[in-house]
Amino acid sequence: MNNEFQNIPKVLRLLLPLCKKVDHRDNEKRTPLHVAVLYNQLIYVDILLQSGADISAKSVLHHNVFHYVALSLCSSEDKDKMFDRLINSPKLNPSLLTIKNLEGLTPLSMAIGYGTPHMINTIVSRIDTSLFQNELSMCIDMLAKRSKILPTAILERFLLSYHRPQESATLFHIICHYDNPELLKYILDYTQNRTHNLDKLLKQTDEHGYTPLLTAVYYGHKSMVEILLDCKVEYLHIMTHDKKNILHLIAQRQHEHVFKILNEKLNANDFSILMSPQPLQATPLHEISKTNNVLLCDSILKSYKEDKLQLFKHQNVYGRTIFHEACEYGRLEMIKYLTSDNLIKDEQIKIELLAIGDDEKRTCLHLAAAE
């Protein structure tokens, strides 16, 4: 055994000559080589490879050694050392760099999400990038999720090769699931410089009827919402398939920080349209009245300059007013607020509102009694 291997634990020096097979699998079908890579045991990796370990082995999740380098919790410097040792191994099968795990992630996608710039650059230089034509969205997803440092050279190469402006809407939806404003601005600028249809792209909805803006609002990504609102696109009033606009989502998710940005950006007419009752549809107040978030409810009502009584009287598809919703969910603080003199001074109006029956002729008192 080479002198460079003498520093390994004595137990390994004892075991290796006795273990004729070095590729035994654990319950996750990981080999000792997989484990050594994951735990950054570089000397052990060298010995296992020298002992005939299968560098192409895959775990039950279809991770290979390059997936495990990315997943290792060691430092970036140590990841690069391990990666270099494996990428330069004479036993390396180049196809390892293009094999997907069960999540559909190749080593490149994993490197973008968990690895280092060196790993990304090396993989890109070693593979035929045409193999990754269908992986752009996955790489963008990993980048948006994990990385705050943009590998702009790699992004430019992939986008120039495979990105089509009409596909930008998909990328925007992916990015807006995460809070990565730098990546969003990069893709926006890239797309805007290559198409005159940015407005149209930002209005496109996903399978649930969400635009990129609605996606960012749903997840409460304030900086992403601010960037999209600054695009000045007339798509604020788009509703999801379950009839929710941007204000419905803010109320449902109780994102006060997002509402503050929206309130600063909207003009009075926009706000009125978003709040206006539509026949048999819930208003944003129906959503917030299901909670005890009196602060957000008060902010929404103060921003609405039209007749508030029509909002209080409005019934959704089940015939319920906001008072029904608060009583149904037992929201005591919200009920106190909605019936306060600060909100409704006329006692008779309060009585009339609370006496409205839903589709089953149940008043607020019925629902409160059931609760």
Automatic annotation (TrEMBL):
| ANK repeat residues | 28-60, 208-230
Coiled-coil regions in this chain?
none
Q: Does the keyword Heme apply?
A: no
PROSITE patterns attached to this UniProt entry = ANK_REP_REGION, ANK_REPEAT
In the UniProt record, does the keyword Disulfide bond occur?
no
Sorted alphabetically, which Pfam families does this protein's record hold? Answer: Ank_2 (PF12796), Ank_3 (PF13606)
The protein's name:
Ankyrin repeat protein
Native organism is: Rotaria sordida
> What is the organism lineage in this UniProt record?
Eukaryota, Metazoa, Spiralia, Gnathifera, Rotifera
